[in-house]
Structure formats: structure tokens, C-alpha cells
Amino acid sequence: MEGDIRMNVKLPSSYRVALYIQEDRNGEERSDSLLSQLQTLKTKVGRWGTISDVYFDICSAKVSYRDRPGLSTLIADMRCERFDAILVTEIWRLFGDVEVGYELGEVISSGGKFLISLDGLVDTSSGNTTLLEFYQWVHFQRFMNKLK
């Protein structure tokens, strides 16, 4: 994760932000990854809003979101408008299967919700990522998963 990426996030300070952290136990991730991600995200939220909730999973990012209780709850809570934005350190932590992209895209496109990754790949709050680009990214991930 790049620590010096300049973020141009445009969220009112009153926004409720959900944090999603995920540790890949099947990869070579450090054992303190969850804590490290949480600290990084908390630092950013201090400038952009308040923390609504923290969702986490300890599993491979390739696992279906239905088998990831933290991510499933996050999507359900977003539909119930419990928060205004999702903040994640790297976008790959959300997308193990393409279905997640469609679920999030549907909720985001219904209005007033944002997705921001600190790796700079997705930021629907600032116009850096339009929904069309977001869906193209999701389709690219589907293609890459088929190649594996």
C-alpha cells in the first residue's frame, strides 16, 4: 500500500464512514495486518467524517462475499443506509468475486453512497472513478479470475 498517495476525497465531515479490513490468511500477509489497516483507516477518517462501524474478515479475498460475514453485513448495512461511505486500504480486499462489485455498484449508483480505496484505484466521492469505470474494473477482475 502506498502511504504517500494524495487523496482528493470530497466527503462532508458529517459523513458516516464504514471501515472494511480483511486479512488474507492464505497469502503471505503479516499477522498484524488487521491492526495496521485499522490504524491507517482511522487516521484518514479523522479528516473525512466519523466512523460508523468497522467490518472485518479473516479469509482469502477470493472467497465469495456470502462466505465473508463482515463483507455480507457491510453490504446489508449499506442498503439500510447505516453509513454514507466505505473506506478500505486496498480495493482488492473487497473483491474476491465479481458479485461484490455488482452489489456495491448497485447501492452506490442508487445515490449518495461512496467507495474509497486508499490505494487510489477507486474514489467515487471525487469523480476520480465514475460508475462506468468502476464497472469496467469489476469486469476486468472477472476476466482475470477466469485466467487463474
Automatic annotation (TrEMBL):
InterPro entries per the UniProt record, alphabetical: Resolv_N, Resolvase-like_N_sf
Domain Resolvase/invertase-type recombinase catalytic: 17-147
One Pfam family named in its UniProt record: Resolvase
A GO MF label: DNA binding
Protein name: Resolvase/invertase-type recombinase catalytic domain-containing protein
Organism: Cohnella fermenti
